[in-house]
Amino acid sequence: MMEYIKEYKEYVITTAVAFVVGLLLALSRGIFQEKEIDMIIIIISDAFFIPGVLLICIGLIVYASNEGLFLSISYGFKAIGRTITAKRDEKLMDEKYHEYYARQIQKKTKCKHFLIVGVVFVVISLLFVIVYFNVA
What we know:
Blueprint: H1 2-7, H2 9-28, H3 37-66, H4 71-84, H5 90-93, H6 97-104, H7 112-135
C-alpha cells in the first residue's frame, strides 16, 4: 500500500486537498442543517464542482508555464531588476532571450495530476446534477 501511495503521491495529495476544500465549502453552505434532499444534492455538487474547476485552472496555468508562455514576461522583469539593482552578474547581464528560454524551458513542473483530479471532480459533480434532476 505504501508503494502505491509513494508512486501516486501527487494524486493523493491533490485529491486530499480537493476533498478538504469541498468539505469546507459544504460546511459553509450548512449541509448538516439542510433538511431538503434536493438542496443537499446541490451543495454536494457544488462541493465537487468548485475544487474541480480550480484544479483544472491550476493545471492549465502550470501547463502554459511549462510551454514557455510566461518566459518573456519573466525575462523582461529580471532584466529590469538587474539594471535597477546592484546585482550585476556579467554572465546573466549578457544573456540573450533565446539563451534564457533554452535554459528555462528545461524546468518543467508536473501538471497532469491537477488536470486529472480536477476532471474527475467535475464529472462527479455532473453526476450529482443528473441525480438532482431525476429526484426533483
